[in-house]
């Protein structure tokens, strides 16, 4: 991947602060590193990954390597959702990220969602190499497409892979594949939900955020789950209520991972992007002390 | 008559009692009790089941080893005490979030669960059954531990897998490899005994070919979801059998689609169901452990 990479970033500790010592990008990737995202007292490098035209055309590959040195903090984000344009033939649009996170370092990958247009084919792979006390935030999310204009789960292929390795041991292996052509179409599988999101929080610095998120998600969901028999038997309920009784607008669940439980993943399904943004904004607000600015702040 | 579901709801403490009951008494007794709940209309479908076949159980008669066939049937039999009946594969959470409300929803749910099982777990069954040795199996087990990122599914997988190994080691005493495996690893902290890789390993050791092992895994998954659906009072046992027969071609199609893949290709294909299954632990009253 190194030779073909369209971007390479290295952040190291220089005079006691996180400093961008390498920032290379070539078409179709552009990297912007504004220095005033947060207050100067906060030690974090922010990077905006942009693509020309706001998205990735069919056949293009955006690949980036990121190295976060010991004790450094880096946030990588985008300016708006990443569009994946209609596929030309069977060609895929691709995004690859390979990152190393040093000891006591923090990497936050907090982009806007990926939006695949109709017929689009998209493949994304992110590999993170961490050490025992690295800290990592990964938000990986995608929408059904331009659903406001009727393009709902209409892309052809979507695959997102997230791997986290601790040394050579797999710590978190996640792969989501959505493809047209199964017994049930993607829209049938997704019902009225338009957004699927995943939040990974790993490392000792993020412990309290993990715990809080788990508590809040549990509180949020337990009120919405109830046995179908609570209003009489299932069969009487079926005749009284419309075909699909009210479902939660946002469904979320959290799971710890890793043998010592150092990681946590939250998965979210939401009927619209605003709900998902609001969930992320509230649940990740406590990253502000580390990053200097809250992720997904209302713009 | 109270269904187990409403009972569990009235008295949450009964839940554990019920679970153990379900596991210990012959399941069919319980299912017969529940048949009175199934609407009469479904009973008319009996006519379509006259050719009720056992196509899930491989029976290629020519040159088949009779003792292998007895073994196969035993492994697929729901009486094998591996605890599959304690799991609903997310169905209970899907019902409590009103995602599955009726038989049509159930059919779609089962097919999605099978699709997801095929894409995510069949590679592990395949790889374990193809080279059933301890060293390769440990690698698969560790990879599966990292792959099952949903805690509910992960715990269900380890509890079923370790139960299956214990049962298989007790039953198939002729397999030295199984005895060694149990002696060496049961109680070990470094392995988790995930179901898919243990299932594949045992199938490989008792002599299943890898295609049969993969089809068998799809079958036990489907069997357990339907069993859960009847006990959740979503469908009567007869209607469940009818639906099982209808879904079998889909299950076979998915087995063919996802079979013989390497574990590097394992992916989940039902993200919504995954989110829902993760909610299982948040439910105030529940009948199943996953």
Radius of gyration of chain B: 18 Å
Order of helices and strands of chain B: HHHHHHHHHHHHHHH
**Main sheet of chain B?**
none
Helix vs. strand class of chain B = mainly alpha
In a nutshell, what does this entry contain?
The complex is a heterodimer of chains A (299) and B (290). Chain A is mainly β.
What does this structure look like?
- The complex is a heterodimer of chains A (299) and B (290).
- By secondary structure, chain A is mostly beta strands.
- Chain A has one domain.
- In chain A, 14% of the residues lie in helices and 42% in strands.
- Chain A is built from five helices and 18 strands.
- In chain A, strands 3, 4, 5, 7, 8, 10, 11, 13, 16, 17 and 18 form an eleven-stranded mixed beta sheet that branches. Chain A has a seven-stranded mixed beta sheet with strand order 2-1-6-9-12-14-15, with no helix packed on it.
- With 290 residues, chain B is mostly helical.
- Chain B has a domain at 86-282: Urease accessory protein UreF (Orthogonal Bundle), CATH 1.10.4190.
- Helix content of chain B is 63%, strand content 0%.
- Chain B has 15 helices and no strands.
- In chain B, helix 7 (103-120) packs parallel to helix 14 (237-258).
- The longest helix of chain B is centred in the C-terminal third of the chain and has 22 residues, at 210-231.
- The model of chain B is unreliable at 1-59 (pLDDT under 50).
- The interface between A and B is large, with 55 and 51 residues.
């Amino acid at each position: 991947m190194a030779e073909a990479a369209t971007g390479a970033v290295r952040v190291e500790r220089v005079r006691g602060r996180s400093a961008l010592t390498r920032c290379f990008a070539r078409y179709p990737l552009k990297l912007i590193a504004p220095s005033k995202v947060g207050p100067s007292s906060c030690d974090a490098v922010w990077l905006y990954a942009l693509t020309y035209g706001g998205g990735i055309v069919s056949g293009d590959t955006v690949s980036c390597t990121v190295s976060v040195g010991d004790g450094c903090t880096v946030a990588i984000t985008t300016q708006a959702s990443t569009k994946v344009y209609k596929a030309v033939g069977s060609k895929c649009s691709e995004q690859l990220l390979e990152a190393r996170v040093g000891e006591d370092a923090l990497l936050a990958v907090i982009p806007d969602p990926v939006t695949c247009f109709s017929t689009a084919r998209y493949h994304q792979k992110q590999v993170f190499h961490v050490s025992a006390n690295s800290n990592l935030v990964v938000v990986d999310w995608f929408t059904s497409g331009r659903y406001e204009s009727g393009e709902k789960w209409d892309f052809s292929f979507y695959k997102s892979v997230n791997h986290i390795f601790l040394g050579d041991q797999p710590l978190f292996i996640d792969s989501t594949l959505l493809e047209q052509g199964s017994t049930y179409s993607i829209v049938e599988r997704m019902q009225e939900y338009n957004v699927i999101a995943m939040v990974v929080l790993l490392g000792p610095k993020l412990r309290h955020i993990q715990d809080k998120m788990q508590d809040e998600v549990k509180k949020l969901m337990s009120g919405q789950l109830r046995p179908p028999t609570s209003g009489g038997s299932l069969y009487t309920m079926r005749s009284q209520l419309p075909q699909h009784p009210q479902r939660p607008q946002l469904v979320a669940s959290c799971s710890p991972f890793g043998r010592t439980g150092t990681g946590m993943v939250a998965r979210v399904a939401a009927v619209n992007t605003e709900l998902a943004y609001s969930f992320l904004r509230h649940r990740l607000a406590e990253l502000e002390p580390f990053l200097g600015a809250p992720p997904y702040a209302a713009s | 008559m109270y269904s187990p579901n409403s009972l569990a709801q009235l008295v949450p403490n009964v839940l554990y009692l019920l679970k153990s009951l379900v596991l210990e008494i012959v399941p069919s007794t319980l299912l017969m009790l529940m048949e009175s709940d199934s609407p009469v209309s479904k009973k008319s479908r009996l006519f379509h089941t006259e050719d009720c076949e056992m196509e899930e159980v491989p029976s290629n008669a020519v040159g088949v080893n009779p003792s292998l066939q007895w073994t196969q049937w035993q492994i697929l039999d729901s009486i094998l005490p591996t605890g599959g009946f304690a799991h609903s594969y997310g169905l209970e959470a899907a019902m409590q979030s009103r995602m599955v409300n009726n038989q049509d929803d159930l059919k779609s749910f089962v097919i999605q669960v099978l699709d997801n099982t095929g894409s995510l777990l069949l590679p592990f069954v395949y790889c374990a059954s193809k080279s059933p040795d301890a060293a390769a199996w440990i690698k698969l087990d560790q990879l599966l531990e990292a792959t099952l990122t949903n805690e509910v599914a992960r715990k269900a997988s380890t509890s079923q897998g370790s139960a299956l190994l214990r049962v298989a080691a007790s039953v198939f005493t002729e397999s030295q490899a199984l005895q060694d495996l149990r002696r060496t690893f049961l109680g070990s902290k470094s392995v988790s005994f995930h179901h898919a890789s243990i299932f594949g390993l045992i199938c490989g050791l008792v002599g299943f070919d890898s295609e049969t092992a993969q089809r068998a895994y799809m079958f036990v998954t489907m069997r357990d979801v339907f069993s859960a659906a009847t006990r959740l009072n979503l469908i009567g046992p007869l209607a469940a059998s009818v639906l099982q027969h209808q879904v079998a071609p889909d299950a076979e199609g998915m087995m063919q689609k996802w079979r013989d893949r390497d574990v590097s290709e394992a992916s989940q294909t039902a993200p919504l169901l995954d989110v829902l299954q993760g909610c299982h632990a948040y439910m105030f009253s529940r009948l199943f452990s996953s």
